[in-house]
Specification:
The chain is an alpha+beta fold. The chain has helices at 7-15, 54-61, 92-114; strands at 2-4, 19-26, 29-36, 38-40, 45-50, 64-74, 77-89, 135-150. Strands 1, 2, 3, 4, 5, 6, 7 and 8 form an 8-stranded antiparallel beta sheet that branches.
Length: 151
């Protein structure tokens, strides 16, 4: 059986995971990179962070982005969701608050799914050089769509 996921199922899939693939446009071509994220169901946004680099520069230039998240048990048993939206860079107190929310959200997913209890961001996300200030951003979701296949 193959079917579309409901909006509630799409949101649940985002909430139950913390690793996805971020798609953005650079020089007219799509680029896709893995990221660690946290989904906020209250605001329907995705929060993440990065160091300064290609991805951030290009999302500043073209704010239309997409996050793909999958749960794949087998070729005939999977769920996939696409969250299309816009990039928004956060600063100062908003960035600090969202980075804390991101950390708490990912820790909860890891605890709920795997029974592990990470204490620091470095235990579950790509490390950022201590001298660099992380760039915290969110994706304001405009559209959610998903598919499911179970046989």
């Amino acid at each position: 059986m193959r079917r579309n996921l409901s909006q509630q199922e799409c949101k649940a899939l985002l909430k139950q995971n913390y690793i996805g693939r971020l798609a953005y446009i650079s020089a007219g071509s799509p680029h896709i990179v893995p990221i660690t994220y946290s989904y906020n169901s209250d605001t329907n946004t995705i929060v993440s962070y990065s160091s300064e680099g290609h991805k951030i520069q290009e999302m500043r230039n073209n704010i239309i982005v997409c996050l793909a998240v999958d749960e794949i048990a087998s070729i005939s048993n999977w769920k996939s969701v696409l969250a299309q939206g816009t990039y928004e860079e956060l600063s100062r107190i908003d960035a600090k608050h969202m980075l804390h929310e991101f950390s708490d959200g990912v820790k909860k997913v890891i605890t709920d799914n795997y029974g592990e209890h990470p204490k620091y961001i470095s235990e579950f996300s790509a490390k950022i050089n201590a001298e660099e200030t992380p760039i915290v951003f969110r994706i304001n979701i405009r559209e959610l769509m998903g598919k499911l296949r179970i046989t």
